[in-house]
Amino acid sequence: MARPEAIAAAFASPLAEELAEDVLERLLRYARIDTQGAYRVSERPSTDKQLGLSRLLVDELAALGLDDARLTDDSNVFASLPGAEGAPAVGLIAHVDTTPDVTAHGVAPIVHRTWAGDPIELPGDARQVLDPAALPALAERVGHDIVTSDGTTLLGADDKAGIAEIMAAVAYLARTQDGPRATIRVAFTVDEEVGRGAEDFDLDAFGADVAYTLDGSDLGELEVETFSAASMRVTIHGSSVHPGAAKDKLVNAVKLASELVLSVPRGRLSPETTEGREGYVHPHRISGNAEEAIVDFIARDHDDALLEQHLDLLRGLAEEVEAREPRAKADVEVRHSYRNMRPFIEENPRVVDAALEAIRRAGVEPRLAITRGGTDGAVLSAKGLPTPNLFTGGQEYHSVREWASVQDMAAAAATIVHLAGVWAESTE
Ligand SMILES: [Zn+2]
Fold it and tell me: What is the pTM of this model?
């Protein structure tokens, strides 16, 4: 499609420009499908509706000629595009679910074509404004095509931008033949946002030698370091009595839970006061009644030993609840979800070098980054499949102000196409 010259200049490369409309069309289509996950559901996937998108992707991959496209028993979409004889198999992974924290029902994406740089007011909620004065990454993208929601839901670019980029790149690779390529193995997982994306992931069936998640953010970034992560549930058992006859009998679990939350450090060790490599503990949900109250925490650190210290701190605070009120009981349940991928990635420097080269070939300056989060790749790296995280061009994730640049998404799709070439060369 022909574009005015001034706009075309915003594309990182001709290949990115060629892929842009397909990436955008796919993002808009996938974003409208509600795939919101849920916390603390033992079934997998945590919500059936995630599979609506998974099944659609199986059909679309099959239509592109990837005949082994299938939904596996553990709810992953797997498909392959064979490459040159003897070339390595490169995995491309994204997740279909969106965060339980913000609704994804009735997503109505808006494309702000050739954005002129004014604050973007989201029409569904007057309070939601994307102000470039407060969003430096947005301010740098005057002239780009910016995609947002209408302000009442997520956009879901996390991670449907990643899915759209993989699909557009695979469609391109399937219809063109310009030199040797690596074999591509595609995986679309469920429940990444609740820390279970790579659970039961069958590495043998997937058959990749290396892999990349498309689940990052800013243009050109390759994330090679994640948090190590754990969650903790503290269940406080009190003793409920009719308040009219409660003197010396009532042990109010609601009050004890509140005390526990108030005893968590403020001014440090919290998401709202830390950045970079600093870890935190974060009470994110509280529920219950006078008889029993539950406080759910997450703990994060890039350093495994420090993560254990944070968990010990929370255990100590839970014990103090019991010490102050011996008639109460505070049960602590800890679950580790993923580990910092860095040591596993460092064992395979080529997985980083190839990605940096592919980003360069897409016309973008590459940058190594750390994430204050986790990815499916963190779990897969720990299981033996080195899986750093590539940028998608989506921003302000897990917010109704989520946005994505079409030009940046197109650069990510072009990076994937180049990855297939770079990995085929690296065996020569
Ligand atoms: Zn994500």
Answer: 0.85
